[in-house]
Design goal:
Length: about 325
């Protein structure tokens, strides 16, 4: 369990550093609670200050100092290059499957939710074509306050990313604007022939009020509207699923070697979850001191240089694998 504690402390430090760079209200979430169990004072005890104030466990078990390997992992995680929260959120929306859960306010004051299709505009804000018969359409015609929650395409649970965009969603009445939005909507959803029907209305989020982003355990923040709109989607994330799928199916040993070389952690499994121009996020399992295998936990692996395109990612991963293999070869006499 000590390794998990070290990683949680590392992630907590990363979030604090991002707060200092202008990300507001970053919220650290418990890492791997399913593995570690409910420990309300975990975050408090992770800091040096807390250690001085609370030198032992509540059950009087003695503390131990982190091992050299744990310190190496913690330092690596703190320094690993990452996208900004705004870039992550913008990329998620841009490369999503075009479905989300919209929340509107009904006349009785209660929120209502519905799964809807959307397409992002040039600012990364959602546009819609809704039937006049839908309850959310009627809600929006009476009041524009709404939000939409969008999750990563391969969302499976709490460790996966999602974003909530909050703002004013208004009907688009300009024929010229509707035509442009219809073209982008059909690019995202080629089979949406019903956008041509007369009883479907065009809506768009005209004003963004808040962005609530959760990138997984211990990575969450509220992002300013201007920061989100000004961010660019990461170009590598457009095809990251294909890179991850290929590596996970055919080259997991290479990923394990890279993790071990970068952080000194010998993995039982290593599955790439996301890839961007600065690095990749890997879910790993590792053998514990008692011989058991840990539940999966997330590590960030930075690239030695930014990747501009898919061939660049391939070459970077090849070079990192070769460096990892070479490092394990015995030195020649």
């Amino acid at each position: 369990m000590a390794l998990f504690s070290i990683l949680l402390n590392s992630m907590r430090t990363q979030t604090t550093q991002q707060l200092a760079h202008g990300v507001t209200r970053a919220r650290v979430q418990p890492l791997l609670t399913t593995v570690m169990g409910p420990r309300p004072s975990l975050r408090r005890r992770m800091t040096v200050k807390a250690k001085e104030e609370d030198p032992g466990h509540k059950d009087n078990r003695p503390r131990r100092e982190p091992t050299e390997q744990e310190m190496r992992i913690m330092q690596y995680q703190q320094n690993a290059p990452k996208l900004s929260f705004a870039e992550e959120a913008k990329s998620l929306v841009s490369y999503s499957n075009g479905y989300g859960v919209i929340s509107t306010v009904a006349p009785d004051g209660y929120p209502g939710g519905a799964v809807v299709m959307f397409a992002p505009d040039e600012k990364g804000l959602p546009t819609f074509f809704f039937s006049t018969m839908s309850s959310h359409t009627q809600d929006l015609l009476k009041g524009t306050k709404a939000s939409i929650t969008i999750k990563t395409t391969d969302f499976k649970g709490a460790s996966d990313a999602r974003v909530n965009l909050v703002g004013d969603i208004e009907q688009v009445t300009s024929d010229e604007e509707k035509k442009a939005l219809k073209e982008s909507f059909l690019k995202k959803h080629p089979g949406a022939f019903w956008v041509e029907f007369g009883d479907f209305l065009c809506f768009s989020m005209k004003e963004l009020k808040a962005v609530r982003y959760v990138g997984g355990f211990a990575r969450a923040a509220s992002i300013g509207a201007a920061d989100y709109i000004g961010a660019e989607p990461d170009p590598i994330m457009a095809f990251a699923d294909k890179i991850a799928g290929h590596m996970n199916e055919d080259h997991e040993d290479a990923t394990k070697a890279i993790v071990e070389h970068e952080m000194g952690l010998e993995c039982e499994t290593a599955q790439i979850k996301t890839v961007d121009r600065l690095g990749m996020t890997v879910f790993v399992t590792a053998k514990q001191p008692d011989g058991s295998v840990s539940s999966p936990f997330k590590l960030r692996i930075g690239f030695p240089e930014e990747a501009a395109d898919r061939p660049a990612v391939r070459n970077i991963l090849k070079d990192m694998t070769m460096a990892a293999v070479a490092a394990k070869q015995p030195a020649s006499s």
